[in-house]
TrEMBL record:
Organism: Streptomyces fradiae ATCC 10745 = DSM 40063
Signal peptide positions on this chain: none
GO CC list: cytosol
One Pfam match: DsrE
Domain of life: Bacteria
Protein name, entry field: DsrE/DsrF-like family protein
Gene3D superfamilies listed in its UniProt record: DsrEFH-like
SUPFAM superfamilies the record matches: DsrEFH-like
InterPro entries noted in UniProt: DsrEFH-like, Sulphur_relay_DsrE/F-like
PANTHER family, sorted: PROTEIN YCHN
Length: 118
């Protein structure tokens, strides 16, 4: 029986390590055959899902990490209101991440056996 895990991130992609830790955990869980993982990005965390991030050499790339988690079955939703507030579009989001809603976050929260926030 699969465990259902929802990870909610709120912090910006860079400047703190909270979102990095959220995405690392999502990727690790997604590789487990007994886990179904969903990630919801709120506030500045929607920046984690912007494709083509340019960061210093050797620095982690959250867009690539989210895409890798998606290849292992993780689903990523980005708060649509938060995406709009930052002038982003759905086309800018990495494959495996999509625009979402508070209603979907509510549904995912009820679906989850565990909810982890960062």
């Amino acid at each position: 029986m699969a465990r259902h895990v929802l990870i909610i991130a709120n912090d910006p992609p860079y400047g703190t390590e909270r979102s990095w830790n959220a995405v690392r955990l999502a990727g690790s869980l997604a590789r487990r055959p007994d886990a179904e993982v969903r990630v919801f990005l709120l506030g500045d965390a929607v920046g984690c899902a912007v494709r083509g991030q340019e960061v210093p050499e050797g620095h982690y790339r959250l867009d690539r990490m989210l895409a890798a988690a998606a290849r292992h079955g993780a689903v990523t939703g980005c708060c649509g209101t938060c995406v709009d507030a930052r002038g982003l579009t759905g086309a800018q989001l990495v494959e495996g991440a999509r625009r979402s809603t508070l209603d979907e976050l509510t549904d995912w929260t009820l679906w989850a056996d565990r909810v982890i926030t960062f």
